[in-house]
Amino acid sequence: MENLYIKGGRELSGSLEVVTAKNALLPILAGCIISNSNVIIHKVARFSDVIYMTKILESLGCGIKWDGDTLVIDTSCANSYVVKDEFTKKVRSSIFMLGPLISRFGRARVAYPGGCNIGNRPIDLHIKGLKALNVKIEERHGYIYCDGRNMKSGEVHLDFPSVGATENIMMASVMLKGTTTIYNSAREPEIVDLQDFLNSMGCKVSGAGTSTIVINGVDSTLGSEYTPIKDRIVAGTYMIACAMCGGDICLNGANKEHNQALITKLNQTGVRIKCRGDTIEVVSKTRPKSISIIDTQPYPGFPTDLQNQILAMQTISRGTSLVVENLFESRFKIVNELTRMGASVTIKDRMAIINGVSKLYGASVVASDLRGGAGLVLAGLVAEGYTTIEDVYHIDRGYLSIEEDLCKLGAEIKRCNSET
Ligand code: EPZ
What we know:
Elements: E1 2-7, E2 12-17, H1 22-31, E3 38-41, H2 48-59, E4 63-67, E5 70-74, E6 82-83, H3 85-88, H4 98-105, E7 107-111, H5 124-131, E8 136-140, E9 143-147, E10 155-157, H6 163-173, E11 179-183, H7 189-200, E12 204-206, E13 212-216, E14 224-226, H8 232-245, E15 247-252, H9 260-266, E16 272-276, E17 279-284, E18 293-295, H10 307-314, E19 320-324, H11 334-340, E20 344-348, E21 351-355, E22 364-366, H12 370-382, E23 386-390, H13 393-396, H14 402-408, E24 412-417
Parallel strand pairs: 2-15, 3-14, 6-7, 10-11, 18-19, 22-23
Antiparallel strand pairs: 1-23, 1-24, 3-5, 4-5, 7-9, 8-9, 11-13, 12-13, 15-17, 16-17, 19-21, 20-21
Helix pairs in contact: 1-2, 1-7, 4-6, 5-6, 6-7, 8-12, 10-12
The chain binds ligand EPZ.
Ligand EPZ binds next to α1, α5, α6 and α12.
């Protein structure tokens, strides 16, 4: 197994190119199978979740070819609508295959993705939305069977603006005769990117980014050549890193609007954020002031995917902070590990109360999920002494090489094999 090994105490400086967004790439890769010709995706970051998604497409008969960071997907030979549990166990986002497979084949059979370390991750909103369009659904032997051969366009009212449910219903209805409307849809930038990608294939989707998305069904789709948006969570993670360590960094490709909620919070801490075009500069000269309350919400609210990282920041900020996690019931696993580094955090249900301390101490800690692992890296960057982080594979799901990125910004961090 691999560990990260960090010597804390370095300020950060320099600039970094932000990679394409994991949470845009995953639904876009799933959506490729809607077309029965070549789809070319540029600047594909090879996150482990992205690699698994390409393996799912290959298992369905698609041709996959890499040319540097350009991915060519030949879907003309796709010949199956069954996603096996060996894949759904590895990458939850395989559930995004339901909609595209229904559009392509009229049917889909996807193994139940199950929960993960941040919560039980139900898919009832996906199921309810598809049923509202007359998809026949059975759940048995750990598989979800969808029969969409008698689907009808219509209206879907989501009880909660679920990102995945919005994306699945969008992709299930792009070739459905008539007009389908999704009310209370998720508004994330990755939904807008999926709309733009689907439209680049000849679909007719509008309204993404608002709470109402309208899909006018088309009879056929084309191939496409597309470059997804940048990863706002990776950018936000490094913005917080600089706020914690002190220094001056520039993130190229970072989008101000996509990170507005974080920028608003960081502006309360004494950190200076300068946005010019698609570059965000972060300047941090003193120990940050605490943020009184951070309340995770669907976009454009504060993103749950930056909650662990900003929580780590609050552990060394001046004052007391309250973090409320409204989306996932088990997204405070990082707290036990931060406590071992000297943090003072009290958990009560969905709330974490943090009393900022002047110093964290390096320790040997274990990552239990993707964003919790990233939060531990940030804590290690400011801790006195050395921090070892085990189970780094969690972090690799959403960061191309977090240690290379942070080394470019002046951190002392390296990856080592735990057996050596
Ligand atoms: C997407 O997950 C992201 N993943 C998550 O990022 C992100 O945290 C989440 O959206 C919220 O922004 C991808 O895009 C691949 P949801 P998703 O459906 O679609 C409940 C990361 O770290 N819900 O918007 O699974 C659910 O329990 C990952 O990159 C239902 O109740 O999120 C949660 O409380 C983690 N029933 C809330 O909605 C459903 O059918 C948000 O879930 C679906 C969801």
